[in-house]
Amino acid sequence: MTRNHSISYPVAHRRGRHSRRAMTLLACTAALLLGACAQPWESFQAGEPVSAVVARLGPPREVYTLADGTRRLMWPTQPMGEVTTAVHASADGKVLSVRQVLQPSEFYRAQIDKWTERDVLEHFGQPAEKAYFPLQKREVWSYRFLQDGQWYQLYHFLFDDAGVLRGTQQSPDPLHERAGGDNVVM
To answer: Phi/psi class of residue 180: alpha, beta or left (left: φ > 0; alpha: ψ in -120 to 50)?
Structure first.
């Protein structure tokens, strides 16, 4: 008696193997497409007219005229969001740069003992929260941001009574605290 050592899979199992491949291919394609989606600050180039940005993002919620005659236009998601798209525009209405300013590399540009409330406003827009601490004689402006794409944080600017920046701090955002102290993006 000879035994047949070949294994024959039922048709449904073979189809399942192919559908797993199809699902894997579909998942990879979806990941590539989502990765290719540009954030608002990535879809504009220097030299474009500011009107093209406004046509796409709508009117800015904040506009500041800077000392050199250029303008800063902002589309914040504060007080609850973590993104502010900022356009630096020339006096003749051309885009000089577009970026997301609520991130550590931007916060670290702040110059303690030199910047004022006006400098922080022009760079980051209106804060999510303001508080005054009379014993320290400090006004604190807080901005929500997402660190490393996963940690909900607050960045605080501390001003003296003359409006000069005297310090900065970073802390977890209690708005996103869950039981166990985790504030990671789900």
So the answer is: left
